[in-house]
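Team,

Forwarding the record for the chain on the shared tracking sheet. I've put the sequence and predicted structure together so nobody has to dig through attachments.
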Amino acid sequence: MKQPLTVVLTRIFTNGFYRMHAGLLLFMFVTFISYCFFINTLGAIPQDFFSYFQQLITITLVSNPLIMCLFFVVCLIYNIKSWQYVALQLSGTAQQFIYYSSTAMSRRKQFLSWFYMQLLINIPAFVYAVFALCIGLIWHHYVLPLVILSYLLLLTITGALIYVQLANRFADTPHTTVFLKLTGRWKKPLFSLFIYHILDKRKLTYVITKAFTAIIISTGMFHLFETGPNDLRTSGTVVLMIALVHALLIYQEHHFEKDYLSFMRNFPYSRTRIYFYSILTHIILLLPEFTWVITAFKPLTSISLLLLGISIIQLLRSICYRSGNSMQVYLPALFGMFLLLFWGIMYGWVLWLILVNFFFSIVLFYRGYYRQD
């Protein structure tokens, strides 16, 4: 029998999430899967072959690391959206009773209830993952299907841990963290303020992001052994994945600037100076990944990949000035940006993409910096 807390969380958050974001969910999952399974061909194909081609699409998912990474990014965006929704609902006055009712239970029972709630939210991804696992077992692909299920399970566990932490946090209890006590007297240049904010207030998000980038790098290295260590298409796709995994941190950077640094617009700082400060911030933010790029590739290739990564991050940051506080605008823009950059990399247009990314990031930044609400 389900716990009363589980029933309450399911009715409030799971049902509410599906009602509010039905359109976005259909766009992210139904479009992706339906395209794979119901795509029209240029020629006539006998009906008997359709099931074979449908299986072939799924086999590509369970046998191709790059396609699997694409699926991972879609699932990550989906889960980030659900985390944002639940966190926003928890902060509302209508759900304040959860803070008192759930915290009366043990952490283990809280975790199980939140885990079940997040599992229901992730049902669309799990259904497709189980189907991929069955096809993989039939065609003797065992590793990647298990990796997909493990990844989805990790996302679900991560969401449950985030919710437990939020439900047990009392916002009206001021305290000074150990990190702030240790770094209180350090000089803090403007470009480093968001890094301090992450290490103080967003440690869990930062650790999860770096864990995902470690998975992407390890998967990308496995594929690079087959295609060659300096293949710009494979390595460029890996850098694209790494940059997009940091999309949530970039979105939080926008909120940090709006909530805590809005007074900067009254300072005699030129937009050019602020733009280069943001580049320094993002270089520090992705320092572990950029260190891997420098050590893993030849100098010319590593420079191209570094510029590609910085340009993507800058474009993500500038898009925030257009989307404002709306995740419903930011996520579709993120998804469309991924598709365009992915196919641009596949066609070998890495150098052109660097120029285009920087150009649009500068234009969006210059037009949006002083127009923030």
